[in-house]
Task: structure prediction
Amino acid sequence: MPKKPITTRDAIIEGAFQLVREKGHEYLTARNLAEVLGCSTQPVMYQFPNLDTLRNLVYQKADVFHSEYILAAGDLLEAGIRYIRFAEEEPQLFRFLFQSGRFSNLSLEDLIRAPEADELLAAVGTEVGLTTEEAAAFFEPLVAVVHGYASLIANNGMKYDPDAIRRALMMIAKGIERGKDHDDETV
Result:
């Protein structure tokens, strides 16, 4: 007797997550998902008549997965390295999270000041000895650089070289810190 396909809501979300993780968010269709699950499209469409709902749930799952990956770092430098390594190890998820148009109307400051970033900003402030406002100002240029590296790597524009990236991030952080010290002296 053939194995009965598993088509619960959770199984569909997990299957969609794995599909996006392996092939990319462009492949998230009822037909492709049904193939992954070993069923017809009917159970998928029954649970998710609007695939945008499923896409949003998969996005949330990917976001939690990414956040846990990043927050496993011991310090700010390691968090930056892990963000970039995530792009190298999970390029399809990285593209889905950051290059699928979800942030098209937001500025970098909007993203840094989003409630989801509060925990990271607090950690940055504590680690570097800054207020939340100072941490956000310190963090903004680092985010731009780290995300730039990650984007290049996720899109095969650059080879992942953790030692070179670590040196570059340390140099940038020192430069930002020196600039902050210089600003404090001129006030």
